[in-house]
Structure formats: C-alpha cells, structure tokens
Specification:
By secondary structure, the chain is of the alpha/beta class. It is 48% helix and 14% strand. It contains twelve helices and nine strands. It has helices spanning 3-13, 30-43, 62-73, 78-88, 102-108, 110-120, 136-144, 159-168, 190-200, 216-223, 233-241, 245-255, and strands at 18-24, 48-51, 96-99, 124-126, 148-150, 152-153, 173-176, 207-210, 228-231. It has a nine-stranded parallel β-sheet with strand order 5-4-3-2-1-9-8-7-6. Helix 6 (110-120) packs parallel to helix 7 (136-144) and helix 10 (216-223) packs parallel to helix 12 (245-255). 43% of the residues are buried. The model has no long low-confidence stretch (mean pLDDT 93).
C-alpha cells in the first residue's frame, strides 16, 4: 500500500480530510524548499505537492508561472528535484507528489524517471498535460516502480472521461474546481457537487479538490465535499512575499477540521 493511500485510509478512519499544499521546488532556493517541506509538514500538511519548474506551464496561473520562472533562473532541473526529494526522505515520511509536465518526463525517459523518482522517495506524480488515453507507457512504468498516477477531472468532464480517469488513477483523483488555470476564483456550486457525485458513483477512490482555494473558509467549504483540499497559488504567493507559511497552513488545517 502506498504512503498516499495509507494517509487517506488513516484520515478517513478518524473522520478527517487531507490537506495537500503545493510549493514550487527551488523557489526561492532548493535549500529553502527543504525547510518549507519540514515547516509545512509540522504545520499539518498530510501530503505535499512539489512543483517541477518548466518553461511552458499551461495549467498554471501568473502566480505559479512566476515561481516556475524563478526556479528555472535558479538552475533547478528535474534531476535536482529528485536529488532534493532524496535528501528530504532522510528526515521525513510525509507523502510527496511531483507535479510536472510531460515534456520533462519524456526527455528524462519515462522508465528512467519512474525508477529514479521511486528510488528518491517520490510517492506519486501529477502530469496535467497527459491524459489517460495517451498514458499507457507512463502508467506501466509507474506501476512497475510503485508510483501513484494521479489524473485530473473537471466540471466539464464527461461520463466517459470520468470512467477513464477513475480507472487509471491511483492514490487519489485530482478534481479541478474551475475551468481555468491555477489561482482563478473558486466557485463552489452545483456543477462541482454534481460532478463529485458522479465521480463517487463510479469509484471509491478519494477525491481531492484543487485550483482557486485560498482561504481557511474556502478550504472548510471544500472539505465538506471531498476527501482532500489542495492549495497552491495562495501558498506560492506567501512564499514570494516572505510571509509566515506555517501559520497559514495551520489555519487552513484547522479550517478543514483538524
């Protein structure tokens, strides 16, 4: 059983929801990312997403795009991200997910990436621009090296798409709350509730909601509908401003019922 699955089972048995913060690896530096992972874990994060800097992050809004740019300017590569995960694993058991795009994985080599990510201590991978229909090679390699494959659904997903994603996903299903990029305004309404109900009628796998969640109140509202809450742009913005991340994560964790 993967660390991610075990985390959701433990949370579900105690009636709690998962808090999944996102930070960009190497923003403002690799050493800072190592400390941020420790701080966020101490503040209550159940799973942590580490962004892999990329030149064309099409799913990300301006806040995270600028974090990509800063990390790239710092010389951060996928190989350096994996080396950092290996360092983090020496002192942390928090489940770690890489959120990357397909080009860096393809260039690295799909099987080599899965093998080295697993050896480093990565637990799962999110690739927003890779759909299950075209992911056979990636899924095969990920299964071989025991990495969870987390795919995305959205309010516009058809029933056929939902069935494909729930079949291909392991760990959890990432529900994108809006039909836009990260950092856009959250809308908790009937489309989200209706789609989550359809997803639940097709799988027992946990669902975590991301995109647009930036306050403890919004996190609390989303946690009533899903097993996990993902927060990215709000945290990345605070890091860029040099603000207190631990306090923010603690308040979000409290908001979802810790």
């Amino acid at each position: 059983m993967s660390r991610i699955t075990k985390t959701f089972i433990n949370l579900r048995s105690s009636g709690k929801k998962a808090l999944i913060p996102y930070i960009m690896t190497g923003d403002p530096s690799l050493e800072a990312t190592k400390k941020l992972v420790a701080d966020i874990g101490e503040a209550g994060a159940d799973i942590i997403e580490l962004g892999v800097p990329f030149s064309d992050p099409l799913a990300d809004g301006p806040t995270i795009q600028r974090a990509h740019e800063r990390a790239l300017q710092n010389g951060v590569t996928l190989r350096k991200v994996l080396a950092l995960v290996k360092e983090i694993r020496q002192s942390s058991e928090v489940p770690l997910i890489l959120m990357t795009y397909y080009n860096p994985v393809f260039k690295f080599g799909i099987e080599a990436f899965a093998r080295e990510a697993s050896v480093a201590g990565v637990d799962g991978v999110i690739i927003p621009d890779l759909i299950p229909d075209e992911a056979d090679d990636f899924i095969k390699a990920a299964r071989q090296f025991k990495l969870d494959t987390i795919f995305l659904l959205a309010p516009t997903s058809t029933l056929d798409r939902i069935k494909k994603v729930v079949k291909a996903a392991t760990g959890f299903i990432y529900y994108v709350s809006i039909t836009g990029i990260t950092g856009a305004k959250l809308s908790i309404g009937d489309p989200m509730k209706d789609t989550l109900e359809i997803i639940r009628s097709n799988t027992s796998k946990p669902v975590a909601v991301g995109f647009g969640i930036s306050t403890p109140e919004e996190a609390a509202a989303v946690s009533k509908l899903a097993e996990g809450v993902i927060i990215g742009s709000a945290i990345v913005r605070l890091i860029a401003e040099g603000k207190d991340i631990k306090d923010f994560v603690r308040r979000i964790k409290k908001g979802i019922g810790d």
